[in-house]
């Protein structure tokens, strides 16, 4: 049984678009060419992969199975191309890492710095994403390694303990809340907030939690990082929800106080997640081992 990578790319494009027309456009092929490649693939496998309808296509069980495997094969091919191209530039490989806001800003920089120092021929492409999106991307083979909230990970994804990550309320040292040890998020949801950009994974998470309380958070300012957020909190502009590690770090040089949030969603455990550790390129396996070691 032989597979053409272009056929697999076209199939994945069509399957994800749920349309041969839109899939062909994604693959930069004419509609007739894309349709012929799908038919060739079905003939080679002797199975029906797509059910054609007036409003697009749906996947058969065989099609769903092929989509899963095709993503893995294409990801491996990308690794192969990247590794070989890297040799020409003196760089052996690139590792794609997805991480939620807390991980990317507070936990990963030091760990990645020490890894990159010891592996000069490795590049790391780190991207921020909400934990649920990270789980989906890892399951689909669109990234090598993820750092996500463990509770969001579905069965079938390998995971390893990384860090405990508590979200706390950062308040000005002059705020009445500064005398509190713990608060319910619902009790402060009507206050003025300072936060990160709306595209950040943490802001998406907070908006979801507020919506469950029937509230919409009011932000007086949105900034790019936790240090800037905490500076405005110290100035009394508003309160903020930040990782405990960031709050404690900033409290050493700013007039803010961390206050624990009682809600269960604020206490989280971060996990390193991969689709299949043994199937990862060796540098990615080494990075997982490095992160697990807490270096």
Q: What is the fold's blueprint, element by element?
A:
Elements: H1 5-17, H2 20-26, H3 31-45, E1 50-53, E2 56-59, H4 61-89, E3 93-99, H5 101-118, E4 122-128, H6 131-139, E5 145-149, E6 158-172, E7 182-183, H7 185-188, E8 192-196, H8 201-212, E9 218-223, H9 226-234, E10 240-243, H10 244-251, E11 256-261, E12 267-274, H11 282-292
Parallel strand pairs: 3-4, 3-5, 7-11, 8-9
Antiparallel strand pairs: 1-2, 5-12, 6-10, 6-11, 6-12
Helix pairs in contact: 1-2, 1-3, 1-4, 2-3, 9-10
- Portion of residues in helices? 40-55%
**Runs with pLDDT <50, length 5+?**
none
Structural class: alpha/beta
Shape: elongated
Describe the biggest sheet?
Answer: 8 strands, mixed
Write up this protein.
This protein is 46% helix and 25% strand. It has 295 residues and is an alpha/beta fold. The two termini are 44 Å apart. The relative contact order is 0.14.
Brief overview, please?
By secondary structure, this protein is of the alpha/beta class. The protein contains eleven helices and twelve strands. It is elongated, with a radius of gyration of 23 Å.
Keywords for this entry:
eight-stranded mixed β-sheet, D-Maltodextrin-Binding Protein, domain 2, 46% helix, alpha/beta, 295 residues, 3 domains, Arc Repressor Mutant, subunit A, elongated, two-stranded antiparallel ribbon
């Amino acid at each position: 049984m032989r597979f053409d990578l272009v056929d697999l790319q076209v199939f994945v494009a069509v399957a994800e678009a749920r349309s041969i027309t839109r899939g062909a456009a994604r693959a930069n092929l004419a509609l007739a060419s894309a349709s012929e490649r799908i038919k060739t693939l079905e003939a080679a496998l002797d199975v029906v992969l797509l059910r054609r309808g007036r409003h697009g296509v749906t996947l058969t069980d065989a099609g769903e199975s092929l989509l899963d495997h095709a993503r893995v094969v294409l990801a491996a091919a990308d690794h192969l191309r990247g590794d070989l191209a890297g040799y020409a530039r003196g760089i052996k490989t690139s590792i794609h890492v997805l991480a939620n806001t807390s991980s990317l800003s507070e936990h990963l920089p030091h760990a990645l710095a020490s890894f990159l120092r010891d592996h000069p021929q490795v590049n790391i492409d780190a991207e921020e994403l909400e934990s649920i999106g990270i789980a989906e991307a890892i399951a689909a083979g669109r990234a090598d390694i993820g750092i996500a909230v463990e509770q969001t990970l579905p069965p079938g994804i390998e995971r390893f303990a990384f860090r405990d990550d508590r979200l706390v309320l950062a308040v000005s040292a002059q705020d009445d809340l500064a005398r509190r040890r713990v608060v319910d998020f619902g009790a402060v949801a009507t206050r003025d907030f300072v936060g990160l950009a709306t595209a950040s994974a943490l802001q998406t998470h907070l908006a979801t939690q507020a919506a469950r309380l029937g509230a919409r958070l009011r932000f007086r300012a949105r900034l790019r990082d936790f240090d800037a957020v905490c500076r405005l909190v110290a100035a009394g502009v508003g309160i903020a929800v930040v990782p405990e590690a960031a709050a404690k770090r900033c409290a050493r040089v700013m007039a803010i106080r961390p206050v624990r949030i009682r809600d269960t969603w604020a206490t989280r455990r971060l996990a390193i997640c991969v689709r299949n550790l043994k199937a990862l390129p060796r540098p990615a396996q080494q990075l997982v081992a490095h992160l697990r070691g807490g270096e």
